[in-house]
Amino acid sequence: MLELSRIFIKVVKAGSFSKASLLLNMAPSSISRKIDKLELLLGVTLLNRNTRQLSLTAEGLHFIEGADKLIQDADTLMAALKPSLAEAKGELKISVFESFGRLHLTPILAEFLNTYPKVNITLDLDNKPVDLLSENIDLAVRIGNPADSGLKARLLLKTKMQLCAAPQYLSQYGQPQVPEDLSRHNCLLLDRHRQKNYWQFCKDKQLTKVAVNGNFSTKGGSPLLQAALQGLGIVQLANWMLSDVLAEQKLQLCLPDWQTVVDDQHCGDIYALYKGSKYPNPLLRLLIDFIVEHLPSRLAG
């Protein structure tokens, strides 16, 4: 009813379906059907329509006065439910996987709390899976879209995988020129319980799959990054882990003309996960919007 009333008011103020269609980004025929539906719900005719102009019926004139106030009241109510800069307060419990939380989310949370000082946040940096309901967690930040259909998910960051190594390693063992060269390098690997590990690359629609080996593997990215910084080998990690060390030239990109390809199962995209609710916590929505707004500037730096 509110949506139909908004459309009706736009049509009346615009003076025609065609002009209202530009304001609403809807086809005139679709707007006409919406008005038909509103009239059917009310059981009255609101508009006199002809090819040249629209005019309000007596019922339409009476309805628009009440509808305008109804929408203003609804908008005021919605605004009151959303935390404002001065009034945002409450508590949030957040679980974030360690590497991303330490590198990027913790500084953003500090900035959020400086902006909204009446908010209290409890942060848990942990890589283990969490049950948001039983552990009373408001927000979990994890890699990959959740399999749990009971959770809502919002994409925070599209991840690009990058290949790099320390200058001292490349000076000693040489820069790989093509993906096949990696089979002769010490590659630092994420432990996925496989007998063989493969890295895939794409260039000009050419897909190349290379079996890689190395003397160090781990389940987390942070130890691999530290090993690469010590000159142990070549590592493949997400761009958000590498942005600072690449900018400081502590690591150098390898095979920059080749795009690293990951399968859907190990897609590194990062999501904000929260409990499904018809009326989401407005404070949680405020925090997620804040994270989405501030993440790009951190990675750009």
Automatic annotation (TrEMBL):
Keywords associated with the record: DNA-binding, Transcription, Transcription regulation
InterPro entries: LysR-type_TF_proteobact-type, LysR_HTH_N, LysR_subst-bd, WH-like_DNA-bd_sf, WH_DNA-bd_sf
GO MF: DNA binding; DNA-binding transcription factor activity
Coiled-coil segments: none
Boundaries of every HTH lysR-type domain copy: 1-57
UniProt keyword annotation of Transmembrane helix present: no
Short name of any one Pfam family annotated for the protein: LysR_substrate
Transcription regulation found in the keyword field: yes
PROSITE patterns: HTH_LYSR
Family of this protein: Belongs to the LysR transcriptional regulatory family.
PANTHER family, per the entry: HTH-TYPE TRANSCRIPTIONAL ACTIVATOR TTDR-RELATED, HTH-TYPE TRANSCRIPTIONAL REGULATOR
Protein name: LysR family transcriptional regulator
Native organism: Thalassomonas actiniarum
